[in-house]
Every structure is written in structure tokens, then in C-alpha cells.
Amino acid sequence: AAFEGVPQVEISRSELDGGINMVDFFSDKTKIFSSKGEARKMIQAGGVSINKTKTQDVGLNITKEYLLNGKYILAQKGKKNYYLVKAS
């Protein structure tokens, strides 16, 4: 209920097992950014957070260790755009 109105994206848990590059996660897998270039620039500029933790490392891999309650990842683009990524 807390995430009512927040866009939700699904991703397969098996993809997280191997890890997904940060840029690929935000562009290809979740479509939060329309292109890899846009995702890379925003990450490097510090405009992206995973589970409320800012990151500027474009080489970071998103793995199942990032899952909240074993099921969710809270992605943030800019200051006000939140996305709930559900692992299934």
C-alpha cells in the first residue's frame, strides 16, 4: 500500500543471481532510462539511488543481495521518480 502509484517493473530472479550491470539494469532490464547513454550520465552525475543509497559506480552489479524482503529493489531516478522493481 505504501507504494501505491509508484511505477512497478518485474525482473527475473535468475538474472539477479548472475548480477546485472548497473547501466543495463536501468536501461535494458527495467526501461527506467530510455538509453544506456542517458542511464550512464545520470549514474555518473549522482542522480540514481538503489534502496535509498546513492551510487555513481557505472560498473556496479545489481545482485540478489540488493533485494528488500527478498523480493523488491527500490530504484530512484532524480529526486522524485521512484520505481519498485519486483523480482519474480
Describe this structure in words.
- Helix 2 packs across helix 3.
- The protein has three helices and seven strands.
- The longest helix is centred in the middle third of the chain and has 9 residues, at 36-44.
- The protein is an alpha+beta fold.
- Strand 3 and strand 4 (53-54) form a beta hairpin.
Condensed summary:
26% of the residues lie in helices and 30% in strands. It has helices at residues 13-18, 22-29, 36-44, and strands spanning 8-11, 20-21, 48-50, 53-54, 61-62, 72-77, 81-87. It has a five-stranded mixed sheet with strand order 1-7-6-3-4.
Distinctive features:
88 residues, alpha+beta, globular
Would you count the extended β strands for me?
A: 7
What is the CA-based Rg, rounded?
12 Å
Given the helix and strand composition, which structural class is it? Answer: alpha+beta
- Individual helix count: 3
Strand ordering within the main sheet: 1-7-6-3-4
| SSE pattern | EHEHHEEEEE
Unreliable residue runs:
none
Instruction: Note the beta-strand portion.
Output: 25-35%
Largest sheet: 5 strands, mixed
Topology overview:
Layout: E1 8-11, H1 13-18, E2 20-21, H2 22-29, H3 36-44, E3 48-50, E4 53-54, E5 61-62, E6 72-77, E7 81-87
